[in-house]
Amino acid sequence: MQLEQGEISPKVKIFISTGEVSGDLQGSLLIAALNRQAQATGLELEIVALGGTRMAAAGATLLADTTSVGSVGILESLPFLLPILQIQRNAQKYLQQHPPDLVVLIDYMALNLEIGTYLRRYLPAVPIIYYIAPQDWVWSLSQSNTARIIGISDLLLAVFPEEARYFKERGASVSWVGHPLVDRIEEFPSRVQARCALGIEPEKLAIALLPASRSQEIKYLLPVMFQAAQQIQTQLPQVHFWIPLSMEAYRRPIEQAIERYGLRATVLAGDNKQVLAAADLAITKSGTVNLELALLNVPQVVIYRVNPITAWIARYLFKFSIPFMSPPNLVQMKPVVPELLQELATPENIVREALSLLLNPQKRQQTLADYKEMRQALGESGVCSRAAQEILQLLFSRSIS
Fold first, then answer.
1. Which of 161, 205, 177, 46 lies closest to 106, judged by CA?
2. Which residues, other chains included, contact 21 with Cβ-Cβ below 8 Å and sequence gap of 6+?
3. Same fold, 11-178+380-400 and 187-376
4. d(C-alpha 221, C-alpha 237), whole Å
5. E-only strand ranges, 19-93
6. One digit per residue, pLDDT tens: the chain, 401 residues?
7. Cβ–Cβ < 8 Å for 207, 283
8. Reduced to 3 states, what is the DSSP secondary structure of residue 289?
9. Distances in whole angstroms, Cα of residue 11 to Cα of each of 36, 43, 44, 128, 400
10. Under CATH, to which class is 187-376 assigned?
11. What is the model's pTM?
12. Is residue 246 helix, strand or coil?
């Protein structure tokens, strides 16, 4: 695309690549911001993507749905290798036949590093922006991934201050825009509104259970989480559990588990805004939802488990070690929320931490104070607009050079 100074192309093609449920959410927020800014400047955007239904609803044409081919761990990823490889090949073929004006990669290292490397080799003139880089700055097993991320990126749009510092110190071109959930949280109902919509009476205790956005989590997290919920229900008879579905495919195993453990629980499909906003406490997997809960001032217990063999290999062969797992703790680099990882994620430990947050006012107030401090490190509102502006500015600067 060759433009003279001051000209604006009537149509711009952007390719966005991400995966998993969280990536689909982040991609949808970015697409909405890109479309708003394009409309304001008279620019026509064509967005083609690897992502999910939220990105499609925001205006992207999906090349493939990648929300169901995500995993964490070595053994856990094996069933998805062939599907990811097929998606990768189809994407590379598409990019070769239909070169975009710009590419945005969002997290999802397994696929995006390969796509970025392919673009650098065969379409070197296409600018690449990495938005929400993989968390190499937290748990890099080798510097090679960091080098690859930097090597394929013309610009990194960081969402965490520590992420920006890490990549900048290693020579990347970085802009810290803040975390997009700061924008998303403005769309949530208030606690009163959410509880009214769900029919939760003021004196009722509502606990959100968030076991899975990946299939492996149904296997490794759901049983221990529901066992803990069963024990909490015995001790607090007034409790009711609320379980938002991240994917419809998980409804049957979740409903079967509710029956098996005799839980008083409601499963809700669709957006999880009301459940999160209404909750007194959440017991949750590690992920983006931890930040949503923190921004809503909902205390939470974070758990995570992988295949025991994966855990052994990571610890003893790769010497894998991380300071924290959940995003609120990573923002502050301190234990803002309790994390129970692998063998520590037992029903007894979950119950102990949950009851402490529910029944110990001092513990609860400390959590809320830490949330407030964390919120200040996530940037001001308008994150998605800043990210979109950076993307379009790079596109424009390349066009007139």
1. 177
2. 52, 67, 70, 213, 246, 247
3. yes
4. 23
5. 44-51, 61-65
6. 333 434 445 689 999 999 888 899 999 999 999 999 999 988 999 999 999 999 999 999 999 999 876 655 555 565 667 888 899 999 999 999 999 999 999 998 889 999 999 999 999 999 999 999 987 777 655 567 899 999 999 999 999 988 999 999 999 999 999 999 999 999 999 999 999 999 999 889 999 999 977 777 888 899 999 999 999 999 999 999 999 998 888 899 999 999 999 999 999 987 789 999 999 999 999 988 999 999 999 999 999 887 666 666 666 555 666 777 899 998 888 999 999 998 899 999 999 999 999 999 999 999 999 999 999 889 999 999 999 999 999 988 876 55
7. yes
8. helix
9. 15, 6, 4, 18, 15
10. alpha beta
11. 0.87
12. coil
Amino acid at 361: P
In sign, the C-alpha dihedral spanning 133, 138, 139, 143 is positive
Domain extents in the chain: 11-178+380-400, 187-376
Integer CA distances (angstroms), 390 to 30, 128, 129, 211, in order: 11, 12, 9, 35
Class (C level, CATH) for 11-178+380-400: alpha beta
**Residue bearing tokens 């983006």:** 288
Q: Which of 68, 61, 100 is nearest to 83 (CA)?
A: 68
Q: Note whether 71 and 80 are within 8 A (CB).
A: yes
Nearest to residue 119, comparing CAs of 144, 142, 93, 81?
Answer: 93
Rounded to whole angstroms, the Cα distance separating 128 from 365 reads 43
| Enclosing H/E stretch for 168 | helix 161-169
